[in-house]
TrEMBL record:
Keyword entries, A-Z: Repeat, WD repeat
Record organism: Paramecium pentaurelia
Top-rank taxon, per record: Eukaryota
Biased composition (Polar residues): 685-698
Region (Disordered): 676-698
UniProt GO MF annotations: snoRNA binding
InterPro entries: TBC1_cilium_biogenesis, WD40_rpt
Single GO BP term: maturation of SSU-rRNA
GO CC annotations, alphabetized: Pwp2p-containing subcomplex of 90S preribosome; small-subunit processome
Protein name in UniProt: Uncharacterized protein
The organism's taxonomic lineage, starting at the top: Eukaryota, Sar, Alveolata, Ciliophora, Intramacronucleata
SMART domains, alphabetized: WD40
Classification via PANTHER family: WD REPEAT CONTAINING PROTEIN 3 WDR3, WD REPEAT-CONTAINING PROTEIN 3
Length: 833
């Protein structure tokens, strides 16, 4: 463009043309690199002042794949080796592969619509069947719970167990509504429509018993009936038939998974729900009085009629005075409704159940200095009912070795009989009705959302409230934990909050979507036009929320930001799609996000699952991660580094992971490796220094003597206690020799450089987050925790006593004041007379 046609050049108040060329160049750099970004930030700040729900510029992300499965109803919220379980309205149970985006296995069931599917695998199993997962299924209008098993790389789903919950198939009260399988496939919790909760134990795959069974059958077959020639021919035929049947059974039951379906009756625990006591209003009390008066009048009339009919006067009988007890009425769900093909009536009191696990520490062997192992065992459940103030912790097992599943118990003889434990019930007092519930991965923090909008944390170890967090305007409908120190909550008013549970502070408080020109009205919030209808959280640090206006947003849980919005339409997709509102499917896994959608012109509204890859979206959103990926860093490492990188570094296009180089003045010092052998070739200098160091070794060892050995033993014990929690990057093995002696001995014996994890993977060491160490409960610490609980209980008792005493004193003072007023009034009246 010509300079004369440019307004900036012709503007009389502009003096850019008079500036020298270097200053003009500097001015341009100042505008482009500094001032423009500052002006944009000021614009966003002004927008936030005007409306705090302003979300800024969000990128829209299309799906990276689709599961074309018609009439899909539910998918499992947990995965096993990137495999999930799904069910449809025709009663088909399927296994889906998230990486290949295909259906691997399919099982036709009773033909009824599948309501819920849950999945759990045998973690840390060392046998041949470690990759076997258990699948629990609930059907519509079916009182039976089905438990299937599936082995990875085998396209076969097998039914193992059934649990019949109700014999009365006409009423809906005892029908199952929700299920959940605990860790290690050990327990299954079943919530019924009437609010009852039952917990059953799932038997493990018994390989040893199956092998012994096959051996016994082989021994029976070895005694062929032809050997007994003295027996009759008819009996020989019978034995031959029995032998052939046994051979068929052996061929069928060659695997422990090939077993017949068994009815489970091992009920471990049960929680009953009576409902809420009804409180009568003024009109209700009047109606009750009227009905009672009508009943009394009818009873009197009946007595008079009987006296008239009986001509002969009977002897006077002394009527025993009956004690009239008011019946306590409870408000319950619609348990007596008849079963129909339509959906179940909405539950007013819905049961929320979460399993509680505790860490168990035991030695791997009988030796004194063997390393300690840590395992998690299920000890109880947290139970709450929506629209009630009932929230309880039920403990039905002790944290001991016998509470572990069979395949994790290292004893040769399995102790099936456990020590009887007194069933402990802890009531958590809440002021407002319950609406949502979540438990952290380490079972330390319990997140509770109330109908009034409040959110608070409960410490399951100390058994007391930890802190109250920032509340919502209306009821908190969804709540999920991300690992142990992040909590995400969604509300009926359309807001999403992200909390840091370690520091008990709010990281993000945003509404789901921002409307230009208008603000969120209170009436619209009450009606629920912007309510959140689906939410899920991934362990990688992303949360996904779907609202009633068919809008999907992604949140960065680690940094507390709204980062993108999702659309159901693919780039080259000819069909126009939109999100499902009625019974939506929203699920997050390690690297995938699944959301249900349907085509607009389709009258049947067949659902399809839209697949969003978490890693691909992170690389597209953050230039810092894209730069690392271009340098050849592995995907899993980048996803682990995502939570450890700052916000500014994520947007930095030239961000790189610092590498460890050779010995120099600017080299990063690694703790615990100051005395390590220098990274240089063995030459004349190294050989000349070796003799001097060898001469110094005996004197150093003799000076330390017994103290160094004692210290080394203590250090080895401490390392063995925390062997699984903290990885020792400083050495490839552990010993009982002092650290100085081992470093010198390495310089003597080893000429090759040992490749440690710091050298191979420097990004894991330099950018590793300081993980919260889970409290390690040994005997002394258990006593300390119990002592703290007792002290806390004594404190509460003292507070109650003091408050009661203050109330009594206040009542006495009030009575004395009333007496004084009456005396004054009496004196005034007497004087007036």
């Amino acid at each position: 463009m010509d300079k004369l046609n440019c307004w900036e050049y012709c503007n009389p108040s502009n003096f850019k043309d008079k500036l020298p060329k270097p200053y003009n160049f500097i001015n341009k750099i100042m505008n482009t690199m500094i001032l423009n970004e500052v002006y944009n930030k000021i614009f966003e700040i002004e927008k936030y002042r005007d409306d705090p729900n302003y979300e800024g510029h969000l990128r829209t992300l299309p799906p990276q794949g689709i599961f074309e499965i018609p009439q899909l109803t539910y998918i499992s919220r947990d995965s096993s080796d990137n495999l999930i379980a799904a069910g449809d309205s025709q009663g088909n149970l399927m296994i889906l592969d998230l990486i290949k985006k295909i259906r691997i296995a399919k099982k036709e069931t009773n033909g009824k619509r599948i309501l819920k599917v849950c999945l759990s695998d045998r973690e840390q199993a060392m046998d041949e069947y470690k990759n076997v997962c258990a699948i629990g299924v609930i059907h519509h209008n079916d009182p039976t719970v089905y438990i299937y098993r599936y082995r990875i790389n085998e396209n076969k789903i097998q039914l193992h167990y059934t649990i019949t919950m109700s014999k009365d198939k006409n009423q809906i009260g005892e029908y199952p509504v929700d299920i959940n399988i605990s860790q290690y496939c050990q327990y299954i919790s079943i919530a019924q429509y009437n609010g009852f909760i039952k917990i059953f134990r799932i038997p493990d795959i018994k390989i040893d018993n199956q092998q012994s069974f096959n051996q016994n059958n082989n021994n029976i077959d070895a005694q062929s009936p032809i050997q007994n020639q003295q027996k009759m021919a008819g009996r020989v035929r019978e034995y031959q038939q029995i032998g052939s049947q046994q051979q068929q059974n052996i061929n069928l039951q060659s695997s422990p998974l090939d077993i017949q379906c068994i009815e489970l009756t091992d009920l471990v625990y049960q929680v009953k729900f009576r409902g809420i006591q009804k409180q009568l209003n003024y009109n209700g009390i009047l109606e009750k009085m009227k009905t009672e008066s009508v009943k009394e009048s009818t009873q009197v009339e009946d007595k008079v009629d009987l006296k008239k009919k009986s001509g002969v006067p009977n002897k006077k009988t002394v009527e025993s005075s009956q004690v009239v007890v008011d019946e306590i009425l409870y408000e319950e769900n619609e348990n007596t409704t008849q079963i129909s093909d339509e959906d179940y009536p909405e539950q007013k009191f819905k049961a929320l159940v979460e399993f509680v696990t505790e860490r168990l520490n035991f030695q791997n062997g009988n030796r004194t200095f063997n390393a300690y192992k840590q395992q998690e065992c299920v000890t109880g459940i947290v139970v709450g009912w929506t629209n009630t103030t009932i929230l309880e912790i039920h403990k039905f097992a002790n944290a001991c070795k016998s509470a572990l599943p069979e395949y994790l118990n290292t004893q040769q003889i399995q102790t099936t009989i456990q020590q009887k434990m007194k069933q402990q019930i802890i009531e958590i007092q809440i002021l407002y009705p319950l609406s949502s519930l979540a438990i952290s991965k380490n079972s330390i923090n319990l997140g509770v959302g109330l109908k009034q909008g409040s959110v608070f944390l409960y410490d399951l170890i100390m058994e007391q409230e930890k802190c109250y967090l920032d509340k919502h305007i209306y009821s908190c409908t969804f709540m999920k934990f991300c690992e142990d120190n992040r909590l995400v909550s969604a509300s009926y008013d359309g807001s999403v909050n992200i909390y840091d549970t370690q520091e008990c502070k709010l990281l993000c408080k945003r509404t789901q979507q921002f409307r230009k020109g208008t603000r969120m009205k209170i009436e619209e919030q009450k009606q629920g036009l912007w309510r959140i209808i689906g939410m899920s959280v991934s362990n990688t640090g992303l949360a996904v929320a779907l609202d009633a206006q068919q809008e999907v947003r992604i949140y960065d849980v680690w940094h507390g930001e709204k980062i993108a919005k999702l659309q159901p339409q693919q780039v080259m997709d000819e069909k126009s799609r939109q999100w499902v509102i009625e019974k939506p499917i929203v699920a997050c896994f390690k690297n995938e996000i699944l959301i249900s959608a349907f085509t607009k012109l389709d009258s049947t509204k067949q659902t399809t699952l839209q697949i969003f890859k978490i890693f691909d979206n992170l690389v597209n959103l953050f230039p810092g991660l894209a730069n690392i990926y271009r340098k050849g860093v592995n995907k899993e490492k980048i996803m682990n580094l995502f939570q450890r990188i700052n916000k500014s570094e994520l947007q930095n296009t030239s961000f790189e992971i610092p590498n460890l180089q050779g010995p120099s003045s600017n080299q990063v010092r690694i703790t615990g490796q100051e005395n390590r052998a220098s990274l240089q070739r063995p030459g004349s200098i190294h050989n000349s220094n070796r003799s001097n160091k060898l001469n110094k070794l005996p004197s150093a060892i003799n000076q330390n003597g017994r103290q160094s050995r004692a210290i080394s033993l203590i250090n080895s014990l401490q390392k063995s206690n925390q062997s699984e929690q903290q990885v020792d990057f400083n050495s490839s093995f552990q010993s009982n020799i002092p650290s100085q002696f081992t470093n010198r001995q390495q310089k003597q014996n080893s000429k090759q450089i040992v490749l440690t994890k710091e050298i191979l993977h420097p990004e894991q060491f330099l950018l590793e987050k300081q993980k919260i160490q889970i409290p390690f409960l040994v005997k002394d610490e258990l006593e300390m925790v119990q002592h703290c609980r007792n002290r806390n209980f004594e404190k509460l008792v003292r507070i109650e006593k003091v408050s009661n005493m203050i109330q009594q004193v206040g009542q006495k003072l009030a009575i004395e004041e009333e007496k004084k007023k009456l005396q004054k009034r009496y004196l005034q009246l007497s004087i007036a007379k």
